């Protein structure tokens, strides 16, 4: 059973990175559903597919974050709608839906990223 009160763990990826967005529900929520126009409150963990190393985590900062979905990377804009509050979803996001190809100026450009997202609230 998955404990949504604890920071998730992501197993080190094996094999080649996917070329398209992968969406896997780890826990299906039963609350309000996120829409493309929603502002969401989430806890999340992000790791690099190439290294398996964590690059960001709201859990590590000790507090969730809230933001309009339309302001996020494309992988989140496409991967969170349809998710329900109380759910935990894993998104594997290729570079073109994250921070662009290598050399795009962001430290994570060119990377396939894996996120585990807990949806805490929607408005």
UniProtKB/TrEMBL annotation:
PROSITE patterns: FKBP_PPIASE. Residues 37-123 form the PPIase FKBP-type domain. Its EC number is 5.2.1.8. Keywords: Isomerase, Rotamase. It is an enzyme of class 5 (isomerase). It comes from the Bacteria. GO terms for molecular function: peptidyl-prolyl cis-trans isomerase activity. It catalyses: [protein]-peptidylproline (omega=180) = [protein]-peptidylproline (omega=0). InterPro entries: PPIase_dom_sf, PPIase_FKBP_dom. PANTHER family: 39 KDA FK506-BINDING NUCLEAR PROTEIN (PTHR43811:SF19), FKBP-TYPE PEPTIDYL-PROLYL CIS-TRANS ISOMERASE FKPA (PTHR43811). Belongs to the FKBP-type PPIase family. This is Peptidyl-prolyl cis-trans isomerase.
